Amino acid sequence: MTKEQQGLENLSIWNDAASMLAKAKKDGVETVWDRLHEQRNECAFCAQGLSCSKCVMGPCRINMKGDKRQHGVCGADADLTVARNFGRFVAAGAASHSDHGRDVLDTFAAVAEGKTKDFQIRDEAKLRRIASELGLASDGQPIDAIARALADKFYQDYSSRSEELSFLSRVPEKRRTRWAELGVTPRGIDREVVEMMHRTHMGVDCDATNICLHAVRTALADGWGGSMIATELSDILFGTPRPTASKVNLGVLRKDMVNVLVHGHSPVVSETILAAAKDQDILAEAAKAGASGINIAGLCCTGNEVLMRQGIPLAGNHLMTELALITGAVELMVVDYQCIMPSLVRIAACYHTRFVSTQDKAKFPGATHVPFTPENARDKAREVLRMAIEAYTKRKPERVEIPGQPVDIMTGFSNEAVLEALGGTPQPLIDAIKVGSVRGVVGIVGCNNPKLTHDYCHTNLAKELIKRDILVVVTGCATVAMGKAGLLTPAGAEQAGQGLASVCKALGIPPVLHVGSCVDNARILHLCAILANALGVDMSDLPVAASAPEWYSEKAAAIGLYAVSCGIYTHLGLPPHITGSKTVTNLALNGLEDVIGASFAVEPDPFKAAELIDKRISTKRTALGLTP
Ligand code: XCC
Ligand code: SF4
Hints:
- Its cofactor is [4Fe-4S] cluster.
- GO terms for molecular function: 4 iron, 4 sulfur cluster binding; anaerobic carbon-monoxide dehydrogenase activity; hydroxylamine reductase activity; nickel cation binding; peroxidase activity.
- It is an enzyme of class 1 (oxidoreductase).
- By secondary structure, the protein is of the alpha/beta class.
- The chain has 3 domains: 161 residues, Substrate Binding Domain Of Dnak, Chain:A, Domain 2 (Up-down Bundle); 150 residues, 3-Layer(aba) Sandwich (Rossmann fold); 212 residues, Rossmann fold.
- It has 25 helices and 16 strands.
- The longest helix is centred in the N-terminal third of the chain and has 35 residues.
- The radius of gyration is 24 Å and the shape is globular.
- The two termini are 41 Å apart.
- The structure holds FE(4)-NI(1)-S(4) cluster (XCC) and iron/sulfur cluster (SF4).
- The site of iron/sulfur cluster has 14 residues, from loops.
């Protein structure tokens, strides 16, 4: 279908998106949907994972029709080609989360060593708790000594060590044994990623299943390593999330204020911008420029980070990032890394918007580069805010259109906050699951993809699940969808089934709980482990599932694979590029079930996906001796 046939209104389910798509047309600005249209008739080899450009004897295409070109020049067949491509895909995702985790770790280490005054340890209790959980001396030790020891321990987790990762101590025994038997226990995080690059070089690992098993190990190094370190250290540095009220959609932009959008993933830059935006001299400069203040709003995962911890409003998710600039109301977009469409620099240039990159590993031609380090962050943040204030004086009011009114949301459901609300133990949640008022828990995670109507799958899947008394926890870009649909407030419980609605009312919580950014899927892993340990079962025995209905990124593939590898049934709205191999596809859809206790399901229709997930939860409940 062409974009014209489809009509602008079918691209997204939201009014704020529709208004900005119309404005894009009027302003002559190209968006992701225009480019998708230009890229139609995608390459069938690539779509199936059957093209390879890993060496210069190629590139090769493995033709599955007839008997021509069944092998690449080196002799690789379809299974091997797909597995090698998929292995690298997962490794890139795991590397992205984990390198973000490393940057948080570098910041944490700089604090521990007294090298920066721009960051502090805001949650000392959590630092002590995690240190002693991981076997480090904590009682009576000075805080910086504990921090140094913990930093050291986490650096070792990144190394080429051959022991298992520190946080595997959280994993139920049965699950760890299963991983050990399969040879997929994650060791050093970097080690697994590098080994995947090695294995997929020409003429190394030529066994598709063996490569897939290493993909499992690499993904686990992300979930229980890089991502978990990112989450826990971010909490220690910036505060463990507590339930907070906030707002969502493009309506959070303000006509009367200097609008600064933080975009990317790491909280290190965005938290500093927030802190600097409270400096009196900066606020005075904003007032002098005629603004009534500085309004900071988030996009994508860095938006989720500052929403969870500081209640900063969320302007939009992945497919809203371009549209946010098209409002003409944004003075400055400051980015770190990941999911930042290169097109944003060009769109910013169509308005008065300044585009600022902050990371030496993520430069954008046309952007102003302001390199942030743990040591200089506060000064750089002030510099960036001054640029935004200057841009405010150049805003053209006739080009500004801020669509709609923001929607109220509730955020901040860290495991700590959830357990506290339950009175300090998971028992009330387990009891609710046992009696069936909460039949199960599903994590809806991840991105948007312009191939699917924006946020249609997210919102409909969540609504279908809560109707069936299935509690939903949400992270990443899916969060924005849930918020706009009114599911992130206690009032959202009116759309839930009777059982779930009663639990939500008793606790004053929404039927969909916001638990953070994509690295915060580690919180969900941890919660599943807590529940499984409390019940004395494996994680694969729990009535839980995961879903990435509108995913697009390598990181989402890593998340999906670590979820399955933990025994969590995982729904995807679109398949990865693996359909060219029967072996790999069968492994994903069926084969993993026997070895790892879960599998993937691919289903673009959210209503059918809800059926599949419901059935899975019923099966798991029955096996536990509960009502389906
Ligand atoms: Fe990116 Fe994380 Fe996906 Fe959103 S959800 S599009 S990965 S920002 Ni993580
Ligand atoms: Fe072709 Fe093999 Fe080289 Fe890939 S590794 S490009 S299949 S020769």
